[in-house]
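Design review, sub-item: ligand-bound model
Attendees: FS, YL, KQ
YL presented the inputs for the thymidine-5'-diphosphate complex:
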Amino acid sequence: MKNVLVTGGAGFIGSNFVYYLLKKDPTLRVVVLDALTYAGRRENLSALPASANVVFIHGDICDRALIDEVLATHEIDTIVHFAAESHVDRGISGPEPFIRTNVHGTFTLLEAARERANRAGTAPRFHHVSTDEVFGALSVGDPPFSEATPYAPRSPYSASKAASDHLVRAYWITYGIPITISNCSNNYGPYQFPEKLIPLMIVNALSGKPLPVYGKGDQIRDWLHVEDHCDAIYRIITSGKTGETYCVGGDNQPTNLTIVRLICELLDRKKPSPDEKSYAEQIQFVNDRPGHDFRYDIDSRKIKRDLGWRQSYRFEDGIAATVDWYLANGAWLSMITGDPAYASWIGRNYLGRGETSPASNRKEEAA
Ligand code: NAD
Ligand code: TYD
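KQ shared the predicted structure:
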């Protein structure tokens, strides 16, 4: 591995991965390709050392001519593919960009890799970063998702990621493109766009806004610190077996409401509200997300056994470190929250849901 293309490298996990990769091997040349949608910011990479060998290309993964040129010019030997539309709520409001980027964009990258194999004699290694949401939803007591779980996506986001996973696997079976796939649980940590649960709650708490909890807040996700996800991907691209899928998760099962309360407690201690009330008083139960997946849980035994991966963050410590990061990076947050497009989306998505009492929300169970 010498020349690595990171798609979506200006987004949340992609930018964390660029830092992680260069920490592991500062001699690498890293080409970041990112369309800088609402979720991507060049500033997410501004803490790279001046010595880092990073090239930034502002471009779209659906642009086949551009991808061909990037693979050839930079002699790319490894592609780590993060670029995606990633937010479930946005996919419900408008699924079209999800199909375009997640399905057609992934297809375009795969075709470019296939063409490169034909021309150069070897295909770049292709790692596809995917989600546990492709497996659908669990009820309480169901066994966790694993590499053997059949696909059963239930939202436009997860359906588009499932489609891309299938394409990636098909290019291995049909054309021998050396692919790997990771299906990871919910990530949290620095640079996460404040529309996802954890950063949204931090931002809204600090700005005195409601903390919108969907339904009764009893849904469950598995959570993993982004740095642990980056380590899993690094292990897969350096020693994973081509053609294989790896499930990655953090082995924890807090409810959404537990997380929101934990964030409020941390903020009460670290940055007490000027009116001395607990931030928990800002919690507001709102109408539920349509088709809301009730629970995710993931069995990471394969990557632990085969690649020696272990998570390093305990959930409580990771959340505390994340709260600290957001408190210390007010300028980064203001850059995003000051954008009128952000305020407009948040207004429509959360405040437009209407307040409810938790008891009036139907208990969401997996269908
Ligand atoms: P993000 O929304 O923060 O970042 C996505 C990045 O992709 C942005 O920088 C955006 O500008 C870029 N992008 C979007 N469309 C593009 C296009 N057409 N061409 C080029 N760049 C484009 O997302 P994230 O949370 O960092 O997720 C990254 C990947 O990890 C996604 O594939 C997602 O499905 C997967 N994943 C995310 C999580 C999670 O909890 N966030 C968990 C598991 C897997
Ligand atoms: P999210 O961060 O959007 O990730 P995903 O939908 O991919 O799991 O949401 C995490 C959980 O938090 C999910 O069950 C929906 C819930 N949620 C809220 O209750 N309120 C919110 O404002 C958001 C953004 C999410």
